[in-house]
Amino acid sequence: MEALERSKEHVLGLFRIVVGLLFACHGAATLFGVPGGPHGAAPHFAAWPGWWAAAIQLVGGILVLGGLGTRVAALLCSGSMAYAYFDVHQAQAALPIENGGEPAAMFCWSFLLIAAFGPGRWALASTLPSRRRSGAGATGSA
């Protein structure tokens, strides 16, 4: 159990990378037909909600994958998948196994987990200089 505790940040980082990559691939498939093309008809530019959902998938997935603005991007991705589940899938049947909403539900909860716990290891944001100034008081004066 000690080894698992020591590897927690690395596992969270890998989880973030995999989830972000899968989400970005889904958005790229819908918007650009790569890899494998869209699952259904490709949406027209700026068409609601399909094009915007795909744009969130691509951009949000890339941000989460790289670990830049991770918490905000993950929260937006989670919300978009909650919207997809309740708007598209829930009307067809009550349970995800019945309505084909398993991917939307899994992405929703996965991104909520990432938003709550942060990016873990290997986030690009950790290589950027911190915007917080050390020694600054609550009012912002040094």
Gist of the model:
By secondary structure, the protein is mainly α.
Topology overview:
Elements lengths: L1 H5 L1 H25 L17 H17 L3 H20 L6 H4 L2 H16 L25
Helix pairs in contact: 2-3, 2-6, 3-4, 4-6
Query: Fraction of residues in helices?
Result: 55-70%
If you average the pLDDT, what whole number results? 89
Shape: globular
- How much of the sequence is in beta strands? under 5%
For the largest beta-sheet, the strand count, sense and barrel status come to:
none
Unreliable stretches: 133-142
- Radius of gyration over all CA atoms, rounded: 18 Å
Order of helices and strands: HHHHHH
Number of distinct helices = 6
How far apart, in Å, are the first and last alpha carbons?
Answer: 44 Å
Number of E-state strands: 0
What is the SS-derived class? mainly alpha
